[in-house]
Amino acid sequence: MLLLLVVGAHFAQAARLSLPAGRGSVEQRTSNLTNYLTRELHLSRLQRQAVEKSTRKYLQQLDQLAVKPGLVAAVSEGRLLEGKTMAELENEYDTALARVFTPGQYTAYSWLREHQPESSR
């Protein structure tokens, strides 16, 4: 329990995890976020590579979603467009990271995501 509090306090003081579309290139944002997660979660080289790949894909999809927001359903009933919602993208990204992180790393990552300001999500 004490370890969880120490880790939580560390993350509370760390820079916030921020993934909004449109702030720099996808490559730049991928690099920044991957470096941050590597440093804060003490990722191995293989974990870092997997996180970088998943993050790049996620940020590219966010940029595509930003170009055409709100397009979810097609004109005819029961037919959906190919685009995914923001929630679906976030869920896919979290699932990809859960496969890469150890349970402790994923717990710390989840805590960090939950405790960031709503405006930076």
Runs in which pLDDT lies below 50 for 5 or more consecutive residues are 1-7, 11-16, 73-80
Number of helices: 5
Tell me the structural class.
mainly alpha
Task: Give the SSE string.
Answer: HHHHH
Mean pLDDT: 76
C-alpha geometry: globular
Number of strands: 0
- The amount of helix comes to 55-70%
Residue share in β-strands: under 5%
What can you tell me about this protein's structure?
64% of the residues lie in helices and 0% in strands. It has helices spanning 2-13, 26-41, 45-67, 86-100, 103-114. The longest helix has 23 residues, at 45-67. Mean pLDDT is 76; it is low at 1-7, 11-16 and 73-80.
Topology:
Elements: H1 2-13, H2 26-41, H3 45-67, H4 86-100, H5 103-114
Which structural traits does this protein have?
121 residues, mainly alpha, 5 helices, 0% strand
Task: Please give a quick description of this structure.
By secondary structure, the chain is mostly helical. It has helices at residues 2-13, 26-41, 45-67, 86-100, 103-114. The two termini are 28 Å apart.
